[in-house]
Amino acid sequence: MPNSLINEQSPYLKQHANNPINWYPWTKEAFEKAKAEDKMIFLSIGYSACHWCHVMEIESFENKKIASLLNRYFISIKVDKEERPDIDRHFQDVFITMNGRAGGWPLSIFMTYNKIPLYSATYIPPKPQYGMMGFAELLELLANRYKNEKENMIKKGQEVLAFMQPKQKIEATKIDNSLETRFIKQIESLFDSINGGFGSAPKFPHTSTLRLVMRLYKLGLSKKRLENIVTHTLYKMSSGGMYDLVDGGFCRYSTDSKWLIPHFEKMLYDNALLSEIYLEAWHIFGIDRFKDIAFEILEYLYNKMQQNNLYFSASDADSNDGEGGYYIYSYEEIKKLFDKEEFDNSIDLLKRLGFSSEGNFESRNVVRVENIDDFTDKDIQKAINLLAQIRKSREYPTIDKKILTSWNAMVIRAMFKAGRVESKYTSRATESLKALEKKMSKDVKLYHSALIDATPTIEGFLEDYSYLISALLEGYQTTLNKMYLTRATNLANEAIKRFYNNGRWKIGNGEFQDFVEDTDGTFPSPLAVMAENLLTLRSLVEPVYEKFVYRTIELHSYELMRQPISRPLLSEVAIRKNRDDMIIKAQPKLLQKHISHIDTLPYPWVFLRTTLEDNYQLCSNSGCFANSKEFEDIEKELKKVTKLG
Question: Which of 140, 360, 386, 632 is most open to solvent, judged by the fewest CB atoms within 10 Å of its CB?
Fold first, then answer.
């Protein structure tokens, strides 16, 4: 008989509806039951595309002995971290405080009915291994300790919560141009000159880091070194493995330092952000391969991850053939196919695609093309098309058909940027924005999450407002439609009212009102995105928005100057504020001619603003300093600004 999760929207929660565990969703009923029966709560947080979440389900949550212990001694609650980022963020902080290291998923928390943490872990094996106690043994130990040492456990848990309270003292530090050189120094020290990217395995895309590197390159800083950091990283990331050369789209991260073996789930936010990065790199460096990748990502999302102009949150790492089964190939099946096609040298072709008889992933092969020139080779292209045909006979990984406002907004923003190159993406962005607003908003109230065919019930978080405003502002730059600017302004006012608190920004307005981190995690910090939005509104609408940015930067200035590498987007906001925006003003009919030029202008932060002027004006937030009938004159002035900076 199914448990209470059967009635939930979340595909992740529904995956556990037939476990022998008496799971509850995060509801008042579960906490009241724990209080009435004086039981500990076992909280398990994960998401549908998470490989180790599936492993723990198969090993432990389907295990009748473990289920019996959980049902006897605990009240068990399941949370989808994508549905409730506020709950996840709070308990990730609990884990970090209790363990002194970053957490992850699945996240396993044991706590009291009033949410005092008693024990925390991530993945827990069913039997002792990896230097960890087995799950069944741990459950019996915790149940016994709760019975005999409850007061001491609660006291220690209260100490954890007290330690987590935000420190009131603010060490404000002056933000100056040394922030730029400090960031460059830190990024160069972490850059992997062999494989691209930063640090060692596992490797993540770090989109906001790459974006700031490109913005500093445009300012003329360390040009050769910064160009190499970006181009080398983007080439290596897109050579195959973490990037799917067959279907398109990036997997979440690489388990090795070479970007070869991915964690096979594909997340919507990664692909939206990476399409922007590759497109921006094409604008700056003129490398056509980067434009191809940007458009391949958007086509993958459109073909595989959307319905009715709304985009799904993720595709799973696992399929019916195990982890990555959909994506990998055996050497013999491909050799046989290539021999049949009568390639001139099938053995050489297999080698160029990274195939070997030993395999590079569990005796099978992930496709990777190391030689950049091979991407234009006809045999390579034909071979990849054949690999795509093989996949058609395979079961596609499960797609989580949850619509998240923030992640959809990321895709819409990317499409608006792509629309300045190919107009079809502007049309797609416009339609998606309409669909998202219709489904996930009610006036200035946003909702966060809902299945594609369901009504949303979870109210929006800061990330939803931040990213939707960002998409609207990009829409204005691409179309000059003032409705987008007005809507962005209204949502920004609502976000300030809901989430802003003297320089700090709350994650949400629900039970957990923790303040959002300034560091960039799985995607850029919503706090930094909001600060970026407010800077843009300062330049396009009203100077008053700058005071909120000033206070936000001031509050985080000490850590910002000490470790900008951890907070690249907020670092960019601070650098941009110091250097100022450049605004090109003119009548709409004049600006329309040059919308496609704004990404190639020689300054990182240039915005178009419609006025009644017959000429082009170039302005900063301090005043206008150039006026001409010729757009080329404005470009020349922008070059001077860059050199002076």
Answer: 632
Maximum C-alpha span of the chain: 83
Given the structure tokens 């405080």, which residue do they identify?
97
CATH, range 178-318+399-579:
1.50.10.10
- Count Cβ atoms below 10 Å from residue 232 Cβ, excluding itself: 17
- Rounded to whole angstroms, the Cα distance separating 607 from 473 reads 10
Which residues are CB-neighbours of 171 under 8 A, at least 6 positions away? 557, 558
622 to 7, 14, 477, 571, 618: CA distances (angstroms): 56, 55, 21, 22, 11
The two tokens of residue 508 are 């949400």
> Using CA atoms, how far apart are residues 23 and 2, in angstroms rounded to an integer?
9
Residue 537 has a CB neighbour count (10 Å cut-off) of: 23
Task: Pinpoint the alpha helices (H) of 324-422.
Answer: 331-341, 346-352, 378-391, 405-418
The predicted-structure confidence for 48-65, as pLDDT tens digits, reads as follows 989 899 999 999 999 999
Q: How far apart are CA 306 and CA 291, in angstroms?
A: 22
**Whole-Å CA distances, 419 to 214, 294, 554:** 21, 12, 36
In degrees, rounded to 5, the angle at the alpha carbon of residue 609 between the alpha carbons of residues 606 and 611 is 145
pLDDT tens sequence across 90-126: 999 999 999 999 999 999 999 999 999 999 999 999 9
Decide if pLDDT at 167 tops 70. no
The H-or-E segment that residue 584 falls in is strand 582-586
> Which residues have C-beta within 8 Å of that of residue 518, sequence separation ≥ 6?
525, 527, 528, 556, 559, 560, 567, 570
Considering the domain delimited by 4-164, tell me its CATH architecture. Answer: 3-Layer(aba) Sandwich (3.40)
